[in-house]
Write a structure and sequence with these properties.
- The structure holds two protein chains of two kinds.
- Chain A has helices at about 5-10, 15-40, 70, 160-170; strands at about 45-50, 55, 60-65, 90, 95-100, 105-110, 120-125, 130, 150-155, 170-180, 185-190, 195-200.
- By secondary structure, chain A is α+β, with helices and mostly antiparallel strands.
- In chain A, strands 1-10-11-12 form a four-stranded antiparallel β-sheet. A three-stranded antiparallel β-sheet of chain A has the order 2-3-9, covered by helices on one side. A three-stranded antiparallel β-sheet of chain A has the order 6-5-7, with no helix packed on it.
- Chain A starts with a helix and ends with a strand.
- By secondary structure, chain B is mainly α.
- Chain B is built from 14 helices and no strands.
- Chain B starts with a helix and ends with a helix.
- The chains are: A alpha+beta, B mainly alpha.
- Chain B: Pfam families: DUF2157.
Chain lengths: ~200, ~375
């Protein structure tokens, strides 16, 4: 075997190997936590009406699925700018006007991040979606349900029913915090305006 | 007792009866084999299985979302478990207990996955499957590279399949013409890095996982980026791999065995690729179909002639393809005329004829080997 190959194949000192792995794994978890906590702490708050239903995830347990009709199926006329000429897998940017009580309404949708959003507005970035060049403006055809990474609310085993019954009456709302980069994070889940679960920072 | 040990014992007995080995020598050979092949013992397998069960228990505990333990406590608990696994691995490695180390690493890796799930649960993340699988895979890669661990390399290979399926699913698999180079390249890069870690750890299984991953990646890319049937791509790659594997340039001699795995992958891909092309042309002009059938039949014979004598997998696969293709041709051309009973009868005759031919070919391989 050549010198390079044997160098690459030489086993690492076990202690160094252990430290490297620990730093990577525990560090990446800590970074995930920090990035989310910072949105909860510093993000702008908006209030959205929601409709929960509850299935289960293998690794994260029971959750209530949340649907946000105002922002996931926005009005067709709101899209501004040119539809991409080539197929793209990209996020869309929503400009939301936020009222006194925090209630948010979509005022514009665009492919690029709007430069100047104006006062009293929040910029929200959707999860990437397939934008097909052939299909024409899919938003105006109502083909997508946009997602924002806030479509699930994990609850302790068996506790989804309480929220579910409130869902039936359509009384649930969610307070969402949005970071400057447009990332959304659930902060509170409310029924009849009263907080059911308040998310701690950590 | 392993399959190899049983096979060896049987062969040695054969040699001893035939007088090729002096009496008593067989026992000595077997004892030597036993002394050197204690690596994969039952205890080792059980240790790894136990680690998998314990890790699964941690994952289930996270999924239960148990409120009695405060969240920061749960995060801390997982960090401690990951750390404990790593410390155990380091200590086992220093005492040269390779399999204890492997089991501890598997446990740590599962706890890492549980940790990512826990953070997602804490902050109610959704639609993050791609990021989830990517981070978990990267953890496995880091582990495999730093510890030269075969089990972690296998884990990385399996998780990489999860990543591939998450990202291709998110991008609407096969939607056609997706313009996202990063997503496609990320899978390739991960595959190559796992290949390095598999090679470093000396894990054959992980190597095969990478090969399969890259083949799946190629199919995904072909479907996404072009209107070409992936069969053509597979056939082209297979042909190249088979040619390289069977007529190995001397420069690569230390890297791969002649008529070995590369050659076998080449043969399988080549024949599968042409088969896919044939399926696409099903129901078209009979001339086209017969031309394709002739191509497949001759390809399997050429493959047999070049590598069949040296590689059992290639030989069996080529026979299988040949037989399947003959039946396909018979069913396409005569099936409608003869009715099902006639078809089955003719099929039986054809297969019997193939069996006779195969026996003759095997005999020639045998004599060829004896002469060389």
């Amino acid at each position: 075997m050549t010198g390079l190959a044997s160098t690459l194949r030489r086993p690492l000192n076990p202690v160094i190997a252990g430290i490297l792995c620990a730093v990577f794994m525990i560090g990446s978890l800590a970074m995930m936590i920090q990035s989310r906590a910072s949105i909860l702490r510093d993000g702008t708050e908006i209030i959205l009406k929601t409709e929960p239903i509850d299935p289960r995830d293998l690794m994260r347990g029971d959750y209530v699925r949340l649907q946000y009709d105002e922002i996931s199926r926005p009005e067709r006329a709101l899209f501004s700018g040119d539809w991409p000429q080539q197929d793209r897998y990209a996020p869309l940017w929503l400009t939301l006007a936020v009222g006194e009580d925090g209630a948010a309404t979509v005022t514009a949708i665009s492919l690029e991040r709007p430069v100047d959003a104006g006062k009293g507005t929040v910029l929200l970035r959707s999860d990437p979606v397939m934008l097909s060049a052939d299909a024409g403006n899919q938003i105006s055809q109502g083909q997508f349900a946009l997602k924002f990474g806030i479509e699930r609310y994990y609850v302790p085993e068996g506790e989804g029913l309480e929220i579910e019954s409130a869902r039936n009456a359509g009384r649930a709302t969610a307070a969402i915090r949005v970071s400057k980069r447009g990332v959304a994070q659930i902060a509170r889940l409310m029924i009849d305006g009263e907080t059911l679960y308040q998310e701690p920072l950590y | 007792m392993t399959v190899l040990r049983r096979y060896l014992a049987r062969e040695i007995e054969q040699w001893t009866t035939a007088g090729l080995l002096p009496p008593g020598q067989g026992a000595v050979l077997l004892a030597d084999h036993d002394r050197r092949h204690t690596g994969f013992s039952l205890a080792a397998v059980l240790a790894v299985l136990a680690a998998i069960l314990l890790g699964a228990a941690v994952i289930a505990l996270v999924a239960a979302n148990w409120e009695l333990i405060a969240r920061p406590m749960r995060v801390l608990m997982l960090a401690v478990l990951i750390g404990a696994g790593l410390v155990t691995a380091v200590m086992a490695l220093r005492k040269r207990a390779r399999w204890v180390c492997e089991a501890a690493l598997v446990f740590s890796l599962l706890c890492f996955g549980a940790g990512i799930a826990l953070v997602g649960q804490m902050y109610h993340l959704s639609g993050d499957d791609v990021a989830f699988m990517l981070l978990w895979t990267l953890g496995a890669i880091a582990m495999s590279l730093s510890f030269s661990s075969p089990m972690a390399a296998v884990g990385a290979g399996l998780l990489a399949f999860g990543y591939l399926s998450a990202i291709s699913g998110a991008m609407d698999f096969g939607a056609g013409g997706v313009n996202d180079l990063t997503a496609h390249l990320s899978v390739l890069a991960i595959g190559l890095v796992i290949a390095v870690s598999a090679w470093r750890a000396g894990s054959v299984v992980a190597g095969h996982l990478v090969a399969l991953l890259l083949i799946c990646w190629m199919i995904w890319l072909t479907i996404d980026k072009s209107d070409v049937n992936p069969g053509y791509v597979l056939a082209a790659i297979g042909l190249a791999a088979f040619a390289v594997g069977s007529r190995l340039p001397p420069a690569l001699a230390g890297f791969a065995a002649r008529h070995g795995a590369v050659s076998a992958y080449g043969a399988v891909l080549l024949l599968c690729g042409v088969g896919l092309v044939q399926i696409e042309h099903d129901g078209e002009w009979i001339v086209v179909q017969l031309a394709l059938a002739a191509l497949i039949l001759s390809a399997s014979i050429v493959v047999l002639a070049i590598a069949g004598g040296h590689n059992r997998l290639i030989r069996r696969f080529a026979y299988f393809v040949f037989a399947a293709e003959v039946l396909y041709v018979v069913s396409e051309t005569l099936g409608t005329l003869l009715g099902s009973s006639g078809f089955l009868f003719l099929g039986g005759l054809v297969l019997a004829a193939i069996a006779v031919a195969v026996m003759k070919i095997e005999k020639r391989f045998q004599t060829g080997k004896d002469q060389s």
